[in-house]
Amino acid sequence: MAVLVGLSSLSVAASPDAAPATPTDKPSLDQITVLGQKERALVEHQVSSFVSAISVAPFRESLARWRTPICPLVAGLPRDHGEFVLTRISQVATEAGVPLAPERCRGNFYVIVTADPDALLKAWIKRDISLFGDAGGVKIRSFLKATSPVRVWYNADLDTAEGLPLSGNTTSMVPSGHTTGSPIDGVPNNAHALGFRLSHDEVRELSSVIVLIDSRRARGVSFGQLADYVALIGLAELRVDADVGEAPTLLRLFSAPEKALLPGLSSWDQSFLKALYHTEQTDKMQLSEIKISIVRDVLH
To answer: Domain locations in the chain?
Structure first.
C-alpha cells in the first residue's frame, strides 16, 4: 500500500506536447521507499496517540476486557429499535472475539435510554447498593453529575492470570502452629503469582457495564451510529472523552459531531477491539502489541 501511495503522489497528467519522459523524470526506488517510510511513520504516530489516549491502563495492572460472556439488555426503546441495538452489539462482539452468553442469561451489559437519567439512577441505587461495586465516592459523584449524552460505568474484577477469582484466605501463608489474626486476613491475594517481570500475575475482567443514554441530549444521531457507539464503549474500558486528534473514530460522535461523519465504527475502532481481544492480556507489553496490530491492519 505504501508503494502505491508513493507512486500516485508523484504521477502527473501528460499533455500531447509534453516531451518524452527521460529516466531522470521517473521517481527512483529510493524516493518511493522514503515516501513509504514517511507514511508508515505518520500512521504509527497517529495510532500510538489514539490508543494511548483512549485506553485505561492503571499503573501495574492489565487492560480490562470481558472474560465472562456478555449478556446485553436494552431498556427504554421500542422493541424493534431495542432488537436492532442488541443485534448490532452481538455482531460487533463476535467480530472482535468477545464471548457471548446464550439467549437466556443474566444481564451484565446494560443499555438504558431515558429522558431523565438522574431520577433513574437515584431509584436504581436505592434498589441495588452494589451498583457501582467498590468504587470511591469521587468517581461515583462524577458519574452521577455528568451531563454528557451518553455515560458509561465499568465494574471490573481482579482475577488470577488463569481467570480465577483471587482468594481472601491467608491460612496457607501462616506457618504451622500459628493463629491467623493477620491484618491482611480477608484481603484478596493470589496464591499462584509467579512474579515474572514481563507478565501480569492478575488481570482485570469486566464484570458489568452500564451505558446510560440521555434521549434528550442524544438527538441527531442515527440508530446505526448509536448502536455502534454503545458497542465500542461497552466492549472495552475506554476514556470516552479523550482527545483523539484527527483519528478516524466514532468516539467523536458526541464530543465533536462535526468531525464524526462516520456511519458506524471506523476501521480503527474495529481493529482496536479485535487487537484488545487477540493479544495476550497478561503481557505487560499488550498496549504496544495492540498498536502494532492496528498499524498492520491500517496499512494493509
So the answer is: 59-299
